[in-house]
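Support case: zinc ion complex. Customer-provided input:
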Amino acid sequence: MIEKKRQLLKSIEEAELVLVGLGKEFIVDDSAFSNWELFQKWKEADKEGNYLWMEPFLKIVWMKEQEGLENQRAYENLAKLLEGKNYFIVTLATDDMIYASGLNGDKIVAPCGSVSKLQCHCTEEIFYFTKEMEQQLKNAVLSGNLAECKPFECPNCNELLQSNVISTQTYNEAGYLPVWEMYTKWLQGTVNRKVCIIEAGVDFSYPSVIRFPFEKIAFFNQKASFYRIHEKWYQLTEELKDKSTAIACNGKEFFMNLFV
Ligand SMILES: [Zn+2]
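Agent response - structure generated as follows:
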Protein backbone atom coordinates (compact mmCIF):
# COMPACT_ATOMS: atom_id res chain seq x y z
CA MET A 1 0.00 0.00 0.00
CA ILE A 2 2.78 2.44 0.89
CA GLU A 3 4.46 1.74 -2.42
CA LYS A 4 1.21 2.40 -4.31
CA LYS A 5 0.64 5.61 -2.38
CA ARG A 6 4.10 6.80 -3.30
CA GLN A 7 3.49 5.92 -6.91
CA LEU A 8 0.23 7.89 -6.92
CA LEU A 9 1.93 10.96 -5.45
CA LYS A 10 4.60 10.72 -8.12
CA SER A 11 2.03 10.41 -10.91
CA ILE A 12 0.25 13.50 -9.62
CA GLU A 13 3.49 15.41 -9.47
CA GLU A 14 4.35 14.54 -13.04
CA ALA A 15 0.86 15.03 -14.46
CA GLU A 16 -0.22 18.16 -16.34
CA LEU A 17 -3.84 17.46 -15.54
CA VAL A 18 -5.59 15.43 -12.87
CA LEU A 19 -9.06 13.95 -13.27
CA VAL A 20 -10.78 12.66 -10.14
CA GLY A 21 -13.99 10.63 -9.84
CA LEU A 22 -15.58 10.05 -6.45
CA GLY A 23 -18.29 7.44 -5.94
CA LYS A 24 -20.53 5.83 -3.42
CA GLU A 25 -17.85 5.31 -0.78
CA PHE A 26 -17.88 9.10 -0.34
CA ILE A 27 -21.60 9.37 0.30
CA VAL A 28 -22.25 10.46 3.87
CA ASP A 29 -23.67 7.88 6.23
CA ASP A 30 -26.73 9.64 7.62
CA SER A 31 -27.73 7.00 10.15
CA ALA A 32 -26.85 9.36 13.01
CA PHE A 33 -29.32 11.98 11.75
CA SER A 34 -32.18 10.58 13.82
CA ASN A 35 -30.10 10.88 17.00
CA TRP A 36 -29.55 14.57 16.40
CA GLU A 37 -30.95 16.91 19.00
CA LEU A 38 -32.90 19.03 16.51
CA PHE A 39 -34.36 15.95 14.87
CA GLN A 40 -35.59 14.72 18.23
CA LYS A 41 -37.07 18.13 19.06
CA TRP A 42 -38.87 18.24 15.73
CA LYS A 43 -40.26 14.72 16.23
CA GLU A 44 -41.53 15.66 19.63
CA ALA A 45 -43.17 18.87 18.43
CA ASP A 46 -44.79 17.10 15.49
CA LYS A 47 -46.54 14.17 17.13
CA GLU A 48 -49.37 14.37 14.60
CA GLY A 49 -47.11 14.41 11.58
CA ASN A 50 -48.28 17.75 10.20
CA TYR A 51 -44.78 19.02 9.53
CA LEU A 52 -43.20 16.08 7.73
CA TRP A 53 -42.11 18.49 5.00
CA MET A 54 -39.43 19.75 7.38
CA GLU A 55 -37.49 16.51 7.53
CA PRO A 56 -35.45 16.75 4.29
CA PHE A 57 -34.56 20.35 5.11
CA LEU A 58 -33.51 19.40 8.62
CA LYS A 59 -31.28 16.80 7.08
CA ILE A 60 -29.53 19.45 5.00
CA VAL A 61 -28.89 21.48 8.15
CA TRP A 62 -27.62 18.37 9.90
CA MET A 63 -25.13 17.69 7.10
CA LYS A 64 -23.85 21.24 7.24
CA GLU A 65 -23.12 20.85 10.92
CA GLN A 66 -21.19 17.59 10.63
CA GLU A 67 -17.81 19.26 10.46
CA GLY A 68 -15.91 16.54 12.21
CA LEU A 69 -16.98 13.89 9.73
CA GLU A 70 -14.42 11.65 8.12
CA ASN A 71 -15.50 12.91 4.72
CA GLN A 72 -14.13 16.32 5.46
CA ARG A 73 -10.72 14.96 6.32
CA ALA A 74 -10.69 13.02 3.08
CA TYR A 75 -11.61 16.14 1.09
CA GLU A 76 -9.00 18.26 2.86
CA ASN A 77 -6.32 15.74 1.95
CA LEU A 78 -7.54 15.62 -1.61
CA ALA A 79 -7.32 19.42 -1.70
CA LYS A 80 -3.76 19.24 -0.42
CA LEU A 81 -2.89 16.62 -3.00
CA LEU A 82 -4.29 18.71 -5.85
CA GLU A 83 -2.87 22.03 -4.74
CA GLY A 84 -1.45 23.97 -7.68
CA LYS A 85 -2.73 21.36 -10.13
CA ASN A 86 -5.10 21.75 -13.04
CA TYR A 87 -7.85 19.36 -12.00
CA PHE A 88 -11.50 18.47 -12.35
CA ILE A 89 -13.58 16.37 -9.98
CA VAL A 90 -16.75 14.44 -10.77
CA THR A 91 -18.64 13.27 -7.70
CA LEU A 92 -21.68 11.07 -7.23
CA ALA A 93 -22.28 12.48 -3.74
CA THR A 94 -25.10 14.99 -3.40
CA ASP A 95 -24.46 16.12 0.18
CA ASP A 96 -22.37 19.17 -0.85
CA MET A 97 -19.80 18.42 1.81
CA ILE A 98 -17.05 18.58 -0.78
CA TYR A 99 -17.74 22.30 -1.27
CA ALA A 100 -16.85 23.00 2.36
CA SER A 101 -13.24 21.90 1.77
CA GLY A 102 -10.27 23.68 0.26
CA LEU A 103 -11.19 22.35 -3.19
CA ASN A 104 -12.17 24.78 -5.92
CA GLY A 105 -15.96 24.61 -6.29
CA ASP A 106 -15.75 25.67 -9.96
CA LYS A 107 -13.80 22.49 -10.64
CA ILE A 108 -16.36 20.12 -9.16
CA VAL A 109 -19.36 18.70 -10.95
CA ALA A 110 -22.09 16.73 -9.15
CA PRO A 111 -24.31 15.16 -11.82
CA CYS A 112 -26.51 13.42 -9.23
CA GLY A 113 -27.44 16.81 -7.85
CA SER A 114 -26.94 18.90 -4.79
CA VAL A 115 -29.06 18.96 -1.63
CA SER A 116 -28.79 22.69 -1.11
CA LYS A 117 -30.21 23.41 -4.54
CA LEU A 118 -33.99 23.19 -4.77
CA GLN A 119 -36.36 22.56 -7.62
CA CYS A 120 -40.00 22.32 -8.58
CA HIS A 121 -41.55 20.22 -11.35
CA CYS A 122 -43.33 23.25 -12.84
CA THR A 123 -40.22 25.08 -14.03
CA GLU A 124 -36.57 24.58 -14.96
CA GLU A 125 -35.65 27.22 -12.44
CA ILE A 126 -33.21 26.30 -9.66
CA PHE A 127 -33.75 27.71 -6.18
CA TYR A 128 -31.46 27.67 -3.18
CA PHE A 129 -31.81 26.63 0.42
CA THR A 130 -30.79 29.96 1.92
CA LYS A 131 -29.36 30.94 5.28
CA GLU A 132 -32.65 32.67 6.09
CA MET A 133 -34.64 29.50 5.43
CA GLU A 134 -32.21 27.55 7.57
CA GLN A 135 -32.59 30.04 10.40
CA GLN A 136 -36.40 30.08 10.20
CA LEU A 137 -36.50 26.31 10.35
CA LYS A 138 -34.08 26.07 13.26
CA ASN A 139 -35.92 28.75 15.24
CA ALA A 140 -39.26 27.02 14.79
CA VAL A 141 -37.88 23.65 15.87
CA LEU A 142 -36.01 25.10 18.83
CA SER A 143 -39.06 27.01 20.05
CA GLY A 144 -41.27 23.95 19.59
CA ASN A 145 -43.76 26.04 17.63
CA LEU A 146 -43.39 24.54 14.17
CA ALA A 147 -46.14 26.72 12.70
CA GLU A 148 -43.68 29.63 12.94
CA CYS A 149 -41.94 28.36 9.84
CA LYS A 150 -43.93 28.52 6.63
CA PRO A 151 -43.34 25.65 4.17
CA PHE A 152 -40.66 26.39 1.56
CA GLU A 153 -42.79 26.67 -1.54
CA CYS A 154 -42.25 27.27 -5.21
CA PRO A 155 -43.05 30.94 -5.97
CA ASN A 156 -44.74 29.92 -9.22
CA CYS A 157 -47.12 27.13 -8.19
CA ASN A 158 -46.93 27.10 -4.37
CA GLU A 159 -45.99 23.44 -4.17
CA LEU A 160 -43.29 22.38 -1.76
CA LEU A 161 -39.77 22.76 -3.14
CA GLN A 162 -37.65 19.61 -3.34
CA SER A 163 -33.95 18.96 -3.32
CA ASN A 164 -32.39 19.05 -6.76
CA VAL A 165 -31.08 15.49 -6.57
CA ILE A 166 -31.44 12.41 -8.73
CA SER A 167 -33.74 10.64 -6.26
CA THR A 168 -36.33 13.38 -6.77
CA GLN A 169 -38.84 12.03 -9.22
CA THR A 170 -38.70 14.94 -11.65
CA TYR A 171 -34.96 15.54 -11.28
CA ASN A 172 -34.05 18.75 -13.04
CA GLU A 173 -30.62 18.41 -14.66
CA ALA A 174 -30.35 22.16 -15.21
CA GLY A 175 -28.79 22.30 -11.75
CA TYR A 176 -25.47 20.80 -12.84
CA LEU A 177 -25.38 21.18 -16.62
CA PRO A 178 -23.48 24.50 -16.77
CA VAL A 179 -20.56 22.96 -14.82
CA TRP A 180 -20.85 19.75 -16.83
CA GLU A 181 -20.26 21.81 -19.97
CA MET A 182 -17.10 23.23 -18.45
CA TYR A 183 -16.07 19.72 -17.52
CA THR A 184 -16.48 18.38 -21.08
CA LYS A 185 -14.43 21.32 -22.41
CA TRP A 186 -11.76 20.58 -19.83
CA LEU A 187 -11.76 16.93 -20.91
CA GLN A 188 -11.10 17.94 -24.51
CA GLY A 189 -7.96 19.62 -23.23
CA THR A 190 -6.61 16.34 -21.86
CA VAL A 191 -6.03 14.88 -25.32
CA ASN A 192 -2.34 14.07 -25.84
CA ARG A 193 -1.44 15.46 -22.45
CA LYS A 194 -0.12 13.77 -19.40
CA VAL A 195 -3.21 13.13 -17.33
CA CYS A 196 -3.46 11.30 -14.04
CA ILE A 197 -6.88 9.73 -13.51
CA ILE A 198 -8.01 8.77 -10.02
CA GLU A 199 -11.23 6.87 -9.52
CA ALA A 200 -12.08 6.40 -5.85
CA GLY A 201 -15.00 4.62 -4.24
CA VAL A 202 -16.84 4.15 -7.53
CA ASP A 203 -18.92 1.00 -7.96
CA PHE A 204 -21.38 0.16 -10.73
CA SER A 205 -24.06 2.68 -9.86
CA TYR A 206 -24.35 5.24 -12.68
CA PRO A 207 -21.40 3.67 -14.53
CA SER A 208 -21.82 6.01 -17.49
CA VAL A 209 -20.90 9.01 -15.32
CA ILE A 210 -17.47 7.96 -14.06
CA ARG A 211 -16.48 4.31 -14.35
CA PHE A 212 -16.89 3.69 -18.10
CA PRO A 213 -15.85 7.10 -19.44
CA PHE A 214 -12.76 7.18 -17.20
CA GLU A 215 -11.68 3.78 -18.53
CA LYS A 216 -12.17 5.07 -22.05
CA ILE A 217 -10.11 8.20 -21.45
CA ALA A 218 -7.34 6.13 -19.88
CA PHE A 219 -7.42 3.71 -22.82
CA PHE A 220 -7.17 6.33 -25.57
CA ASN A 221 -4.68 8.64 -23.89
CA GLN A 222 -1.15 7.25 -24.38
CA LYS A 223 0.21 9.40 -21.58
CA ALA A 224 -2.43 8.57 -19.00
CA SER A 225 -1.94 6.93 -15.65
CA PHE A 226 -4.98 5.44 -13.99
CA TYR A 227 -5.68 4.57 -10.35
CA ARG A 228 -8.75 2.65 -9.27
CA ILE A 229 -9.35 2.66 -5.53
CA HIS A 230 -12.25 0.66 -4.05
CA GLU A 231 -12.80 -1.74 -1.21
CA LYS A 232 -14.35 -4.33 -3.49
CA TRP A 233 -14.54 -3.11 -7.09
CA TYR A 234 -10.88 -2.23 -7.69
CA GLN A 235 -10.41 -4.67 -10.60
CA LEU A 236 -9.02 -3.36 -13.87
CA THR A 237 -9.64 -4.33 -17.43
CA GLU A 238 -6.95 -6.18 -19.37
CA GLU A 239 -6.38 -3.32 -21.86
CA LEU A 240 -5.49 -0.88 -19.11
CA LYS A 241 -3.07 -3.14 -17.31
CA ASP A 242 0.12 -1.37 -18.36
CA LYS A 243 -0.86 2.08 -17.21
CA SER A 244 -3.08 1.42 -14.28
CA THR A 245 -2.91 0.54 -10.61
CA ALA A 246 -5.61 -1.14 -8.56
CA ILE A 247 -5.78 -0.23 -4.89
CA ALA A 248 -7.98 -2.46 -2.74
CA CYS A 249 -9.03 0.06 -0.14
CA ASN A 250 -12.11 2.08 0.70
CA GLY A 251 -11.78 5.30 -1.32
CA LYS A 252 -12.68 7.61 1.52
CA GLU A 253 -10.33 5.89 3.95
CA PHE A 254 -7.55 5.99 1.40
CA PHE A 255 -7.73 9.77 1.25
CA MET A 256 -8.26 10.13 4.99
CA ASN A 257 -4.95 8.38 5.56
CA LEU A 258 -3.14 9.67 2.51
CA PHE A 259 -0.43 11.55 4.37
CA VAL A 260 -0.22 9.25 7.37
ZN1 LIG B 1 -43.69 25.12 -9.00
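The longest strand covers residues 113-119.

Case will auto-close in a few days if no follow-up is received.
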